[in-house]
Design goal:
single chain; alpha+beta; 3 domains; ten-stranded antiparallel beta sheet
């Protein structure tokens, strides 16, 4: 029930009832409303500080879980980067050395990360966890790039592995004549006395003494590069290109049974021992070239002989004697 207000009228000496206008009522109502709203807002602020609303609590929980998941993601990336670094180390220092391939340059492995600015532009500038999200995105992009580079590297290693079998078959790895008793090797690679010029000069191969007509074998798979006769030098010669930088030469032959461009296999007969060209006795002069330069053939003989037999070959080849051509 509304309270009725009176005032004392001095002229009439009576209490008269206070008459309120519509504006008075309006202002009174507005005053009550403003006070009520202010009080309500104060209670809400106090309640919000003391008690979380269900929505706020849910958002706070989601934010905590987001931070925990991002932290866990970064921890997993640390582990994966460690695994990837170990693979890269094996790749450069084991696999690529086995296949004689150059290591991947560090500048490529640590190349820049693209797309970060584009991703940053998609985020709100005032996002509270912006830097955390950007950093995580950068790490993901860097990890993806490293994985892509490593995958390409392993593709290359696989190609090299497929060629490795072919390379092992192509390397000149056996003796060019039958030498089971290890007595045919008469002169080794190096400075030797020349039997005709009677002075010490470089001898670029191995001399195997043998009877005329003794079979000569290709020491590795390859393609016959040259079949030629040099009357004043090597005599009848066969040269084989084995690929991978290897070539072999077989000189002073009595005859050859292969032709230029013909593919041969390791152990296949290509001709017979003779005494043609500038030679003092029937023998085979055998050379190995690697990338265009002669090398000591004794270092490439590793098939068909034991360790003891190889040691005997090395001993015979190291003797400072006279060559046969």
């Amino acid at each position: 029930m509304a309270r009725i207000k009176y005032y004392y009228d001095t002229e009439t000496c009576k209490y008269e009832r206070v008459k309120q206008t519509k504006w008075d009522v309006t202002f009174n109502v507005l005053g009550y409303v403003v006070v009520t709203l202010l009080f309500s807002f104060g209670l809400l602020a106090l309640f919000g500080d003391l008690f979380e609303s269900p929505k706020f609590a849910r958002l706070a929980k989601e934010n905590r879980e987001l931070k925990e998941n991002i932290a866990l993601m970064n921890k997993k990336m640390d582990e994966n980067e460690g695994y990837l670094q170990a693979l890269a180390h094996k790749d450069d220092n084991v696999y690529r050395k086995i296949f004689e391939a150059e290591p991947i340059p560090e500048t490529i492995r640590k190349g820049g990360v693209g797309g970060v600015q584009r991703f940053r532009s998609l985020l709100e500038a005032d996002l509270e966890q912006e830097e955390m999200i950007i950093n995580t995105f950068e790490r993901i992009q860097a990890l993806r790039r490293k994985m892509f580079i490593q995958t390409k590297s392993y593709d290359e290693i696989m190609d090299l592995a497929k060629k490795k079998e072919q390379m092992w078959a192509s390397i000149p790895a056996i003796q060019p004549v039958n030498n089971t008793e290890m007595k045919r090797l008469s002169s080794g690679y190096g400075i030797r006395m020349h039997p005709i010029m009677k002075r010490r000069i470089m001898h670029h191969g191995l001399d195997y003494s043998a009877k005329r007509g003794t079979p000569i074998y290709a020491t590795g798979d390859g393609v016959v590069k040259k079949v030629k006769y040099y009357p004043g030098g090597y005599g009848r010669v066969v040269e084989i290109d084995h690929g991978f930088g290897f070539e072999t030469r077989y000189a002073h032959m009595q005859m050859y049974i292969v032709k230029r461009g013909q593919k041969v296999k390791r152990g296949e007969c290509i001709g017979y021992v003779g005494n043609t060209g500038r030679s003092t006795a029937p023998h085979l002069h055998y050379e190995v070239r690697k990338n265009g330069k002669t090398v000591d053939p004794i270092h490439y003989i590793f098939q068909g002989i034991s360790d003891e037999e190889y040691a005997e070959l090395v001993r015979l080849a190291s003797q400072d004697n006279q060559s046969l051509s």
